[in-house]
Amino acid sequence: MVPTDLTVDFSGVTAALASLGPQVVTAGGLVVAAGLGVAAAFWGFPKLIGLFKKTAK
After folding, report:
1. At 5, is the secondary structure helix, strand, or coil?
2. Distances in Å between the alpha carbon of 32 and those of 2, 26, 53?
3. How far apart are the first and last CA of the chain?
4. CA atoms lying within 13 Å on the CB side of residue 39
5. DSSP, residue by residue, 33-49
6. What pLDDT is recorded for position 3?
7. Up-side HSE of residue 27: CA atoms within 13 Å toward CB?
8. Cα(39)–Cα(35) distance, integer angstroms
9. How far apart are CA 47 and CA 33, in angstroms?
């Protein structure tokens, strides 16, 4: 049987989520920065090397 006077207090959860927000944003920024770094390594650096080789001739 389910009690009818059941009350749930979510104040601890909301406080924890509020303090977790900046950490999630920071982690998301690090993931984006790492992705851009990997993209630069696979796409940008070979293009730059080719450009320097062309201008050195």
Report:
1. coil
2. 47, 10, 30
3. 85
4. 6
5. HHHHHHHIIIIIHHHHH
6. 66
7. 5
8. 6
9. 20
Residues contacting residue 16 through CB under 8 Å, at least 6 positions apart:
none
Q: What is the pLDDT of residues 13-38, one digit of tens each?
A: 888 888 888 999 999 999 999 999 99
**Lookup: tokens for 38:** 């990997």
The reported pTM is: 0.53
8 Cα distance to chain centroid: 32
**CB environment 25-38: b (16+ within 10 A), e (fewer):** eeeeeeeeeeeeee
φ, ψ dihedrals at 9, nearest 5°: -105, 115
